[in-house]
Structures are given as C-alpha cells and as structure tokens.
Amino acid sequence: MKPTKRGIKVWVRADPHNGYVNDIQVYLGKENRDEDKGLGERVVMDLVTPILNRGHHVYCDNYFTTVGLFEELQQQRTYACGTFRSNRRGISITMQKGNMVATAWRDKKTVFILSTNFDPTTPRTTVQRRQKDGSQKDVSCPESVRNYTKYMNGVDHADRLRAMYSLARKSAKWWKYLFWFLVDLAIVGAYILMKESPNHHRRQEQENLSH
C-alpha cells in the first residue's frame, strides 16, 4: 500500500517528538527464527529489545498490532498502542482483557485501536473536525485515539527530514542505495541532536543554523 512499491525495506524505531531514529533493521527476507511469531511481531520485538522493562510506550500501525505482541510487551513493562485491522477483532465498540483494551471509534470511517496504555474509564476527550461549511467542531473520542494521533508520527517525521536533502540516487546495486540511506540517516540524526542540545541553542540563534 506504500507509494513506492519497490525497493529495500528498512524497519525503523523513531522518537515521536522529533523523528530521531533510534534503531533500524534492514529486511533481508523470510526468517525461520520463531514460527509462533509473525513478521510484524518479530520486527517490533527486535527493535524494542534494548528498551524493554523501562516503562516505555510504543506506537505502531496495523501491520504490527497483534494481541500476542501487546501481551508480550506488557509482560516486560512496555506499553503499546496501535490501530488494528477490523477482521482481527469483529465489530465490538470496546473489549477489555486485563489491561488490554480494543476500541472501535467511528470517524469518517471506523478506526480500530488496540492498547495497553489506556484506561477505558478515563473521561473521553475531543478532537477537532472540519465541517462542510469550513468551521471546526469538537468531536468526542476515546483517549487512546487522541494519544495515537499525537504520538504515531515519529517514523513519518524522520522520513520527511531525510527526503528534504537526500543524497540517495537510483542504482542497480542495492548496497549503494543502503549506504546513502545510512548517510542521510546520520545527517538527519546530527541535525536533530544539534536542535535538541542546549549548548547549541544560542549558536543557532546567532548563526541561524539549519538542516
């Protein structure tokens, strides 16, 4: 379903606030390491292993979200939230198993959220939606939907920054593309760290340092 349907697939774990890429895994094809886990579950566990048991919250899209994955993460003090495909959970509005909550919320279309970091008894919040006349209207929604919308953008942000001044060029040799991908990643990472560093703030103001 991606706009670019051919090329090298790289799995990414990124900071939701600034897009800093914390870890990557290049997809090398099918592996027979754990037949009980699907590809999405295995990828997530590989990428989050260094940060397990620290109380982190992980957000992912419906390619990765499964009950088994979220249960395994929760057992290791790591909480999760993600959309899931409707054929995995029927049409129920809310279902709960321990700390795991499945929510179906109707927007323009039905949104399905699976989470272990959301209390269903929390008062509902609101999101703004544009009306046909151009005005904005507050629409009631579960807290899990608001949190998913707020934090599920780290990888997209990293991709946008990398695409702005990409050094990548088309090549018949896959390793060349991967090499320039890593160079782009390093440049973006350095830029983000410069922006985050308090020691650089005054210099940025004086010299107008940019990406």
What does this structure look like?
The chain has 6 helices and 9 strands; from the N terminus they run ββαβαββββββαααα. By secondary structure, it is of the alpha+beta class. The strands form 3 sheets. Strands 3-4-7-6-5 form a 5-stranded mixed sheet, sandwiched between helices. Strands 1-2 form a two-stranded antiparallel ribbon. Helix 4 crosses helix 5 (174-196). The radius of gyration is 20 Å and the shape is globular. Mean pLDDT is 83; it is low at 88-92.
Helix content: 25-40%
Number of strand elements = 9
Distance between the termini: 30 Å
Oligomeric description of these chains = single chain
Morphology: globular
The side-by-side strand order for the widest beta sheet comes to 3-4-7-6-5
Which series of helices and strands comes N to C?
EEHEHEEEEEEHHHH
Main features:
single chain, 211 residues, alpha+beta, 5-stranded mixed β-sheet, two-stranded antiparallel sheet, 6 helices, 9 strands, 23% strand, globular
Topology:
Elements: E1 10-14, E2 21-26, H1 39-48, E3 57-60, H2 67-75, E4 79-83, E5 94-97, E6 100-106, E7 110-115, E8 125-130, E9 136-141, H3 143-151, H4 154-164, H5 174-196, H6 198-207
Parallel strand pairs: 3-4
Antiparallel strand pairs: 1-2, 4-7, 5-6, 6-7, 8-9
Helix pairs in contact: 4-5
Structure in a nutshell:
The protein is an alpha+beta fold and 211 residues long. The chain contains six helices and nine strands; from the N terminus they run E-E-H-E-H-E-E-E-E-E-E-H-H-H-H.
